[in-house]
Design goal:
The chain has 436 residues and is an all-alpha fold. The protein has a single domain, classed as Growth Hormone, Chain: A (Up-down Bundle). Helices cover 78% and strands 0% of the residues. It has 16 helices and no strands.
């Protein structure tokens, strides 16, 4: 017969094992907030639709031109508006009601998706029109995305911001997984117009979620949107070394290690496939991101977040370089999935660092810089990959890009040693105090 001490010991071990298992998986506490839950679900569904479009447009472009350079230039059409307007979008998000701004932007994005469907239905086959439409989409995203991200800290408790960041990354990775797979299937079986129309329909869920939110006016009076407001945000950012370094690491990974513009060409010339193979390659990093997101519980407890960002970015670059050398589709998908796990981790830490170290009066502008890097830099990466592939080959472009990413990560680790010592737990309302 077990003693009471033994029983207590067994219960303690069982409780510890249960707690450990729970700690391994994604933290769902932010979903207890009805407003955040609706916003997260609406964003998850509309995100899938948006990724369907972002996969269908390169497919249509490659079908029209059979050129990786033309696909890469889509990155220029998408990235330049975000780079040029993103900071002003953040300034606007710090000045007006963020709910109204996101609502108006979502209506505009839905309308542009319908225009894409119409041009496909009419078989206009105008490359310039595709460039114009994706550029307009990016203009609107540069305004809506900073406001959308800046709303999160107002919907969840402060100690759940890290968990909310992990959930946002999980939603993002889910869209990157399902969107390309659905796009490849829809385009191959129904047509491009059906893919674009699906995107338009998914915006209904996002609109409903935003409509149910309370008003979200700026809590503090900031400068009117313009150069002065942008400079205020950049001046604050310049004084926060951990923020600038984490953005530099992400900028490097997205420009040099991003092979997405090469997927249509590699699917046809390297793997002998078509639209469905393109969809698999686009979805592969997100497959790893989903796994990483589900098991993201430990990420929210990492305190040496600077070192973690550097390691994850290095793994991303190595996986992308190895992907270029793989001869089998299954191995390429596996390596891209490893890259996706690393990207998931980097995204969680980056978003958490930006949210926790930014005052609400500047949160729109700081988030806009993160969006310029996170959304605009991959588009520049598309251009870089497309140009190198045009003069060499898609395989060479993907390999050298991943290798350059790893070299740059090592340089940043040596150039900013204090970033590796950043300790989130030591932060006390000031980024500088977080350096050990």
């Amino acid at each position: 017969m077990p003693t009471s001490t033994q029983s207590e010991s067994e219960r303690s071990r069982a409780a510890g094992q249960t707690s450990s298992r729970k700690g391994l998986f994604v933290d769902l506490r932010p979903l207890k907030s009805p407003d955040y839950r609706r916003l997260w679900l609406g964003g998850a569904l509309s995100g899938v639709g948006s990724t369907i479009t972002s996969t269908a447009v390169p497919i249509q472009t490659y079908d029209l031109t059979h050129s990786s350079l033309a696909v890469g230039l889509l990155g220029l059409a998408t990235g330049m508006p975000i780079i040029l307007l993103g900071l002003f979008g953040g300034a606007l998000a710090d000045r007006v009601d963020r709910r109204k701004l996101v609502l108006a932007s979502s209506f505009c994005l839905m309308f542009l998706s319908l225009i894409l469907a119409l041009q496909s239905l009419l078989k206009l086959n105008a490359l310039w029109l595709l460039y114009v439409l994706v550029a307009l989409q990016s203009c609107i995203v540069s305004v809506s995305a900073p406001a959308s991200r800046a709303m999160t800290p107002g919907l969840v408790p402060k100690d759940q911001i890290g968990a909310a960041s992990a959930l946002s990354q999980l939603s993002f990775q889910n869209s990157l997984l399902l969107g390309p797979l659905l796009a490849g299937t829809i385009v191959a079986t129904v047509g491009l117009q059906a893919a674009y129309s699906t995107d338009a329909v998914t915006f209904i869920f996002a609109l409903y979620a935003v409509l149910r939110l309370p008003a979200m006016p700026a809590k503090a009076r900031s400068s009117p949107p313009g150069i002065r407001a942008v400079i205020e945000g950049l001046r604050f950012l310049r004084k926060q070394p951990v923020l600038t370094t984490v953005l530099l690491v992400d900028l490097n990974a997205m420009i040099f290690g991003m092979p997405r513009a090469l997927f249509p060409a590699l699917a046809v010339t390297h793997f002998g496939g078509g639209a469905e193979t393109v969809g698999m390659l686009y979805a592969a990093p997100a497959l790893g991101g989903i796994v990483g997101g589900i098991l993201s519980g430990p990420l929210t407890r990492v305190t040496k977040q600077g070192l973690a960002v550097l390691v994850a970015a290095g793994v991303w670059g190595l996986a992308c370089a190895a992907f270029a050398l793989a001869s089998y589709l299954w191995l390429s998908v596996f390596l891209l999935a490893i890259a996706g796990i690393a990207d998931m981790a980097t995204g969680v830490f980056r978003r958490t660092i930006l949210q926790e170290n930014s005052p609400d009066s500047l949160r729109g502008r700081i988030n806009s810089v993160g969006i310029v890097v996170g959304v605009g830099a991959p588009r520049l990466g598309d251009v870089e990959a497309g140009v190198v592939a045009h003069f060499t080959s898609p395989v060479f472009s993907a390999f050298t890009g991943g290798l350059a990413c790893v070299v740059a990560v090592l340089y940043l680790a040596l150039a900013f040693p204090s970033f590796t010592r950043y300790n989130a737990r030591a932060r006390d309302n000031s980024t500088e105090t977080a350096f050990a």
